Amino acid sequence: MQINRNAYYGLIHKGAASLLGLNQMLPDDADAVYRHWLKQRTSKTSCKDLTDAQLKALKNLLEAKGALPKPVAKAQQQTRQNNNPTNKQYKKLTAVVKSKGWSGLGAPELAGFIQRTTQQQCVSVYQLDRRQMSNVITGLEKWKV
């Protein structure tokens, strides 16, 4: 798997700056300290000369020392932040609604069904969350007109 080397360069520099206090130094001194630190760890003075494995190892070292925050898994972040129905759910609902002979997602019959299913005064399919959308789709599939 190919890594984004530029992202690793940035992370390593950011972590080293935090670990070594480079932001409190004069630019020339900070550069010298950073390159000396890098040479001690990797025998190279520039991240561009490192292999992908060396870049990963250096990033992991900085994370272990607390100079970089450990990344949160993307899937976990998205599920907590985004509870909106998926595009697949909208497509499925549209297909089920059309199979009932209704005009579409704005059909008054669908609005009534949503209100009965969710027990809320929800008049639009676009106000549903993922769980509610799933319940509406399942209910419509089981419902005989």
UniProtKB/TrEMBL annotation:
It holds the Pfam family GemA. This is DUF1018 domain-containing protein.
